[in-house]
Structure formats: structure tokens, C-alpha cells
Amino acid sequence: MQYEFLKQFSRRMKHVGMYALLLQNSMAKQTWKQYGFVKMDEQVNMIFAVMLYIMEQSLREESCTMDDIGAYIDNLNAGFFQKDMSYDDCKRLGDFIVNVILSNEGRAMYFDGFDFDGRAYRSMNISYIANRIIYVDEGVKRTSYYLTEDGYNLMLSTLEIENNMKLTIHEMIFKLHLEKQSYDKAVDEIKNVFNFMRIQLQKIEEAMLRVRRNALSYSVADYEALMNENMETIGDTKEKFTGYREMVRLRASELEQQNINVQKLDAGEEEKLENLRIIEGYLNRTLDEHQKILNLHFDLKLLYDRELQSLAQMSLIQWFSIRTELYDKVLDDPRYLENTDIFLRPLFHQQIPQIYNLNKCTGLQRPIRKKAAEDADELLDFDEKQWQDELERRKRDKLKKYEDALAFIIDTALEKGSLSLCGLKEVLDGDAAAREICIPTIDVFKEIMVELIRNREISMDTLRKEKSEYISEQVNDFQLNEMLLSLTEQGADHSEKRRKITKIITERSDDGTVVAFENVTDAFGNERTIRCTNVVITLECV
């Protein structure tokens, strides 16, 4: 399926259908008006109040007859709703809610949810309550009502789990699926965990925006609740999910080694291996979100403290209107000019903040007279937009170096089928221009190789799939996956050959060879030597 998030769409629609059918059975019913419930809000509140009573009686395994429901509604009305209803009216209202709205007058209720896997609508039965016959005092037969599974799901969904428990519960379910090796279900749970982390990050960003606009609009209670949620989220999340990532990597490595050394994996094992790689990717992204939440948690704390302090200082300032308090009074009586200094004196009596840096007295002192003379003759013209443009241009130039170097490595590997660092050194030693492209600086070449080794095996199909499912922000920093997609999709001379790449596998060589690239410039223009173990880059193509 192209859109993986539509897999469980029909299940979602069942939850929606439970609300839709309930409102459909209640709307446009004139019976409500007979008992004084005119607004739809009042009607819905009464329906769910009755369902809650039935749920409580069901959980206690106690009887829930129409007499019990009528007495319950009568107590609610006397204490809260204050409608003009007698006990008999309350009993009739309970019969209307139970038998007409919740039971649809005995007719079965269905809701159609579209199944994108089956490409057709699925008709799903919905039932809120059921009944059974009980015998009360002296063998009198009565009908007792109780909630069905759909009824329980509906009521439990109205009061969701506390925010600080959601992440813990999904993490526990994810752990259980990993232990049972139900990797397909573990993928769904780790997606839920990642979504909760992303939602928490967005909540912090929105809170910081509100504080910047007006700190008084963000209450202390909201701030405390968000801080507690953050602490619950970042408590031991990193340690747990780092451990899960190592476990996933170990199991994926075992399957890969089995595929290489023992026998070829069957379809089920291939699916498990693919799910493990997806889980590892989401765990990496979850840990990234954890770090962002940790950083923004402290940023929000500092921002809120600073804004409140600024507001407190503002409240101590006494404001005057220059026109009414000074100009108009002087125009009315010029003799006030003699006392103008009394009005203006506070402006000139503020202490000038002085800071003495002790580190300066112990540092090397250099003559600054010449530099001061040069600075006196220099005219500075600072343009913020031009400065920002210059920064962006430098970032683009640096990113272009990464792109050219990675493209050279990929194209060279395409020509040879596989490329080792020893083979790359032989190519570069005989071509100075190629050396300048492949190793523009130590940092660029080192970061590319580290990212290739860290990812080890990169599936281009998986990268394209993730890119189609998620919207990512455009950044000017080096991202290996984004750059690989760009190199294989852009309209360059080698684009047709690059599109055939399905996997990029980077492995350390076991021969113990050390490859040295001499006279390579670093970021400051100094020439250095890179020494690293031999690495083999293998490309799989269609």
C-alpha cells in the first residue's frame, strides 16, 4: 500500500461510528423537549451520564433495571439539572435513552468503514448495551442492562489516559512485542511512541511562542503541568530506548549473518529483518526528539523566568506623559522652567553598570594603540540582511562540497562495482582535481565516511518510502540520507546509473590495512594526514 497510515483505517472508523450512530439516534427526537432538554449539549450529557451509571453497575456485577435507572436520573435531576420532571417522567426518560437511543428500538446498528486493503467498505456492527433476565425479591422477573464491548470502548475513550502515562504504556507494549518477536506490531507501537514525543515537542514550542507574546496569558498551572510532562518524558527514556536500539541491532545482525553464512532467509524472516530496520530508524528518531525536548525544556524555563522578571520590573516603573506633565504646565506658567531639573534629574542619576573581567588582568597584554587608530578610520556599514545572505551562501557552498565528494565516491563505486579506501587512494593519487573534489577538507571527508560506516547498510527503497510518508523541513546541514536521495533523483549526467542503486553497504575490511591520505587541508588551511582502517563500499543495483 502506498499510504501505510491507512492500514487500520476501518478500525478507526468503528470508533468514529460509535459516536456517529449515537448522535444520529438522538438528534431530531422531539421526546427530549417533553422533559425540558432542548439543547443538544444537555441531551448528550444526559446520555453519557446514563451510560456511566450502567457501566458502574456492570463493573460491580449489580443489577441495573429500569427502576434503578429511573431513580438515578431522578437523583441527578433533583441535585443538578433541576428540570420539571417527576419520578415517573425520569423513568420514562430512562426508557427512552436505553431502548430508543442506545438500543435503536431493537434494530441492529451498522456503520460502514472503508477498508483500503480490500478496496471496499466494511459493514461493522455496533452495539452499546445488552440485557439479561434476572430475578429479584420473591422471584419477580426483571430486565437488567449492561454494557457490551463496544459500550466499554466508547466510555473508556471519553476519559483518556493521563498524558504522563501514555508514553509509559506504549513503551511497555512495544517492549512486550519485541520480547515476543512480533515485529510488525512493534513497528506500530514505536510509531506511536515517536508521535507522542513529537507532540510533546510541539507543545513546548507552542508554549514558548505564547510566553514570548504575553507571559501573563500562560498560567503558572499550565507551566507546571507542561514541566511535569516533560520530566516524565525525558526521565529514563534515553536509557530505555538506547537499550532497545542495541537489542534491535543485535537481532538484525543475527538475521543478516544467517542470511550470509547459513542459508537464505525465507519471506517471513525477510519481513522480520525489514521491520527491525524500520524499528531501528524510529528509535534513532525518537532519541533525537528526546534530545530536542531536553534542550527546549530548559529553554522554556529560562524564557518564562526572564519574561516574568521583565513584567515585574515593568510594574515598578512610573509612567509620565511629557505633554501633560511637562509641556502643558510650562506653557501655562513659564516660571516652571526653573524647576525642570527636578523632573529630569532621575534620568541622569542611574548607576552605570561596570563589569571587571579578572581573566583580562592575567592574560597576555598586547598594544592596542595601532588597532584603535585603524578602527577610528574605518567606516562600518552593517546590513543585517546582507549578513544573513552571506551566512546562507557559506552554508550552501559547504553543502555543495559534501554533495560533490559523496557523488564522486558513489560514481567511482558504480564504475568498479565496489570501492575500498585503498582503491580510492590509488584513483586520487594520480588526479589532483579529483582529490580536490573528493577530499576538499578533512572534516568533509571524515563526516561522510563516518556516516556511511555508522549506517552500514542503506536501502534506497526504504529512504524513498520514508520521504513519501513524512514531511521534513529543508535544512542546510549535511544529512546523508537526504543527500543520497538527491543524488539519485536529480537530473545529472549520472542520474540514470544512480537510480539503479538499491542498496549501499559499507563494511570495515578485515585485512588490517591502514590507508593514509597525506597533505590534506583542514578547515583552517593547515595540511595534515588522515589515517584510517580500510573500508569497502559495495553497491547493489537492479
Written overview of the protein:
- The chain is an alpha+beta fold and 542 residues long.
- The chain folds into three domains: 4-158, no CATH class; 163-315, Up-down Bundle (Methane Monooxygenase Hydroxylase, Chain G, domain 1); 387-541, no CATH class.
- It contains 22 helices and ten strands.
- The strands form four sheets. Strands 5-10-7-6 form a four-stranded antiparallel β-sheet. A two-stranded antiparallel sheet has the order 1-2. Strands 3-4 form a two-stranded antiparallel ribbon.
- β8 and β9 (527-533) form a beta hairpin.
- The two termini are 22 Å apart.
- The model is unreliable at 376-382 (pLDDT under 50).
Number of strands: 10
> Mean pLDDT, nearest integer?
83
Largest sheet, in brief, is: 4 strands, antiparallel
Strand percentage, roughly?
A: 5-15%
Radius of gyration: 36 Å
Structural class: alpha+beta
Shape type:
flat
The overall number of domains is: 3
Please give the order of strands in the largest beta sheet. Answer: 5-10-7-6
Number of helices: 22
For the termini, the CA-CA separation is 22 Å
What's the helical proportion of residues?
55-70%
Low-confidence stretches: 376-382
